[in-house]
Specification:
The structure holds two protein chains of two kinds.
Chain A lengths: L6 E10 L2 E11 L4 E5 L6 H7 L8 E6 L2 E2 L4 H9 L1 E4 L11 H11 L5 H14 L15 H13 L5 E5 L7 H16 L3 E5 L3 H7 L2 E6 L2 E6 L1 H6 L4 H11 L2
Chain B lengths: L2 H11 L2 H31 L3 H15 L3 H16 L7 H29 L4 H9 L4 H16 L1 H14 L11 H11 L4 H29 L5
The chains are: A alpha/beta, B mainly alpha.
């Protein structure tokens, strides 16, 4: 990795009661890198993804974004969160706002853009993800795939340094998975730093710079997609790949 | 006496409309006060600051579980009589203001809980998405949670408003000349018409309350957030 990594996770631990969900996690993500978190359910990959903008708290260790330690609460945290885009499994578009207002809310209220500036930028982003014709509709009027692309545009509107994707296609009907993955692939090609939790192996192969494999809250192995899929080093990874690839 | 004769006797002798108008005014001003105070309490109860949450919870439990009549008596006999705290030099206005304040303080506890029940109808993901784009607690509450929560709490807020409208009769304890006070003097001086008297006041409150119910039902359908 060149110079200082953009996202640094150092010695992070987290418990849910007695359950140790993250065990001494160390992870560095360089600028422009696309990291795919893989692992069986309950392995802690979603939790890890959510700790990076502190939607989940951590017990100890530290997380740095662009050299700054993620603060615990308050204004500083909000400021840092604005630099970290997040796309959720269930889209989470603001249900009472139009598509356009969903995308402009952050730029206007956090970045302080004027309505017209924010709307002009939002329309460009919506065009980029292919839903500009839906700008004045409400989220419930859009298909799942369209909603998720709006969610990506909403995150991009903040001009984030890194984007987190927490199983972005898991709640989609199969025919809509590709349109979202295509958007993500083009984002990766543009050089966006991305941390993606997904079960889409085809996408992982195609877009990832590095696969990070977790099981039981630990990082078991990290390698390039070619190496990971053709020659996994650990027994756990071989077992996992055996279960998902042979059907 | 026939039905219409009884009715005209009462209406000729007493200004029934004026008395009910007092209840309507009490309802209106107390509702505004209760809504503002209740919203602040609801914000406190969902805030990340433990001491604010505790204060909000204490308020709700204390006020909600005290009978309104006792609060009204406390305000008049305690605050006004003992501390001589006068809100207006006009005797009637003073009591009227006292009644509004007590009604607002009391119903704010219910408004708070109604809004909180509305907040519970908003999925957690909405707040997470708002925080993820860098909005702090107050902007998240203001732009994302409350607009959706209010739509979800229209029905319980309507119920609180209906209770408030009927509870304005407790203002009689504070010597406010309103409908139930008038009813008492009617019963005293026209006890032969007691059934008609009850009928008139029951109908009066039906006329005030039914539109509130219809309006909130309509509004909760109209404004529902589609998911």
């Amino acid at each position: 990795m060149s110079q200082e990594a953009l996202v640094q996770v150092r010695g992070v631990n987290k418990h849910y009661g007695a359950l140790h969900v993250l065990k001494n996690i160390n992870l560095e993500v360089g600028k422009g890198e696309v990291i795919i978190l893989l692992g069986p359910s309950g392995s802690g990959k979603s939790t890890l993804c959510r700790t990076i903008n502190r939607l989940e708290t951590i017990d100890n260790g530290e997380i740095l974004i662009d050299g700054k330690v993620l603060p615990a609460e308050g204004k500083e945290l909000a400021k840092l969160r604005a630099d970290v885009g997040m796309v959720f499994q269930s889209f989470n578009l603001f249900a009472h706002k139009t598509i356009l207002d969903n995308v402009t809310l952050g730029p206007r209220k956090v970045r302080g853009l004027s309505k017209s500036e924010a709307e002009a930028e939002a329309m460009q982003l919506l065009k980029k993800v292919g839903v500009d014709s839906q700008a004045n509709k409400m989220p419930a009027q859009l298909s799942g795939g369209q909603q998720q692309r709006v969610a990506i545009a909403r995150a991009l509107a903040m001009k984030p340094k890194v984007m987190l994707f927490d199983e972005p296609t898991s709640a989609l009907d199969p025919e809509m998975v590709n349109e979202v993955l295509e958007t993500m692939v083009s984002l990766a090609r543009e050089g966006m730093t991305m941390i993606v939790v997904t079960h889409e192996m085809g996408f992982a192969r195609r877009a990832a710079d590095r696969i990070v494999f977790l099981a039981d809250g630990e990082i078991i192995e990290q390698s390039s997609p070619d190496e990971f899929f053709s020659n996994p080093k650990s027994e756990r990874a071989r077992d996992f790949l055996g279960k998902i690839l042979n059907h | 006496m026939s039905f219409s004769e009884q009715l005209s006797t009462l209406f000729a002798k007493y200004n029934v409309i004026d008395a009910f108008w007092t209840n309507v005014q009490l309802t209106f001003w107390a509702a505004i006060g209760a809504f503002v105070l209740g919203s602040i309490l609801a914000l406190m109860r969902i805030s990340p600051v433990p001491s604010l949450r505790a204060a909000g919870t204490a308020y709700v439990h204390l006020v909600r579980n005290t009978p309104l009549t006792i609060l009204m008596t406390l305000a008049i006999l305690g605050v006004w009589t003992q501390f001589q705290l006068s809100l207006s030099s006009n005797f009637e206005t003073n009591f009227f203001l006292y009644a509004i304040i007590v009604l607002a303080i009391y119903h704010a506890a219910f408004v708070c809980e109604a809004i909180r029940s509305g907040v519970n109808t908003v999925p957690t993901g909405q707040a997470e998405a708002a925080r993820a784009i860098g909005l702090g607690f107050m902007p998240t509450a203001r732009y994302v949670i409350f607009p959706q929560a209010l739509r979800g709490s229209i029905t319980p807020l309507g119920n609180t408003l209906i209770a408030l409208a009927k509870n304005t009769t407790v203002a009689t304890v504070a010597s406010v000349a309103e409908a139930s006070g008038m009813m008492k003097s009617m019963i005293e001086f026209n006890s032969d018409l007691v059934f008609m008297i009850f009928f008139v006041f029951a109908m009066g409150f039906v006329v005030i309350v039914v539109p509130i119910g219809l309006l909130t039902t309509w509004a909760s359908r109209k404004l529902a957030v589609k998911r």
